[in-house]
């Protein structure tokens, strides 16, 4: 419907002003202001230097007449409000029946998008914060693909550098402890119980092999063994969470292919670097960063920043026009330097979108949960999944914008009640499946859906449901445009609320054939949209609960 309104306005614009402009069409919060409202007169007022009310009057006079339009009013200083006939919303049901699982799907855009998310260092298990980032990245990738983009999912593995060496040293020291040697375990080593478990596995498999080696050689080899082992666990946890990647991209591979070295050489040739205190610095302040950044340390080691520049250049070389990185909020200070580096290399920094995912505060019955005793310093994603399951975790992670802190109550997530947000939506789907089953048991004959007379659907609650269903394509488009998957979560909650109210106040079966059939097909349309929406969020759609 929104699309139809826009087409009417564009026709009126061509007739009246012969001008092409961008304008908004919104759903008013107050029903008295109609079904749709536009600010087009205000946008034109700036260009034409005329009062918006006068422009609105001219546009309304030039609007083509439509049988589905009840009236058009001008409100305030020049807002144009559109009121649709109740019967016009019946077309939405027909559209959903016709398109099925493709209802709301966007046209192919021929734009390659890479969504890089999670990308946790293989130095420890995934924690609950990584879980939220995984839910955001995976759902966003699903939505972008459904909206018509060519989407590629990638996990960047930081498998070189100081943190990997620290992991190797941590395992080495625990390994020596198991052999009875008294060692001092530094505070900057990894403290988690998983380090001891890896050391036990190494000892069981390799015996005293690493005790006889030079310490540096032992640390290097154990770093490789441990990071591989942890990465296997990460892949398993993500698979259990319903998250899969098209590519696991290794930083080591980037270095071995000399891509980091080539980027540094390029910066040297362009004069965008200088030496200070033995290190090589990039003049990132020239591109909006707060201070210059080191590319090569005084000891000759390249920085993570240098690797990240090479990695993002590699993304561009692979033909991705839009790059989306999903990071933890603790990386917020890293954004300006990466954008500065991309700008310096000739890439539009606006085509690099970085989503910062805020912290998750885990609670149980409203009270904060103590730190995990098994994992050492954090609550793992696996612990949460084992307790509440994939569906609850994914949905709750997406109930708020990723840049907002999130309270996650384990007790609520486990409840089979309407208090649980994912149960609330899934139960709407299950209720409709139950209606279908009852209809079949009663031998109810429903004509082919496209042949059903929908005119009995005229109650306010039915019209409200149809209005909500009509919004689904716009929700998909908006979630893809703003990179905000929580918009879909909120929408599904609102649609489910509308259906639950309808279900509790109106009978669907056991009525005259024409009313029964019309209400049945309305329920089918709601079910279709809920199923599509939950699939995009990576949440299952049970048929009974």
UniProtKB/TrEMBL annotation:
Keywords: Aminoacyl-tRNA synthetase, ATP-binding, Cytoplasm, Ligase, Nucleotide-binding, Protein biosynthesis. It catalyses: tRNA(Arg) + L-arginine + ATP = L-arginyl-tRNA(Arg) + AMP + diphosphate. InterPro entries: aa-tRNA-synth_I_CS, Arg-tRNA-ligase, Arg-tRNA-synth_N, Arg-tRNA-synth_N_sf, ArgRS_core, DALR_anticod-bd, Rossmann-like_a/b/a_fold, tRNAsynth_Ia_anticodon-bd. Its EC number is 6.1.1.19. One of its GO terms (cellular component) is cytoplasm. It comes from the Bacteria. It is found in: Cytoplasm. Its main location: cytoplasm. Residues 3-84 form the Arginyl tRNA synthetase N-terminal domain. One of its GO terms (molecular function) is ATP binding. GO terms for biological process: arginyl-tRNA aminoacylation. A motif ('HIGH' region) lies at residues 120-130. SMART domains: Arg_tRNA_synt_N, DALR_1. Signal peptide: none annotated. SUPFAM superfamilies: Anticodon-binding domain of a subclass of class I aminoacyl-tRNA synthetases, Arginyl-tRNA synthetase (ArgRS), N-terminal 'additional' domain, Nucleotidylyl transferase. Residues 425-545 form the DALR anticodon binding domain. Monomer. Belongs to the class-I aminoacyl-tRNA synthetase family. This is Arginine--tRNA ligase. The lineage of its organism: Bacteria, Pseudomonadati, Thermodesulfobacteriota, Candidatus Desulfofervidia, Candidatus Desulfofervidales.
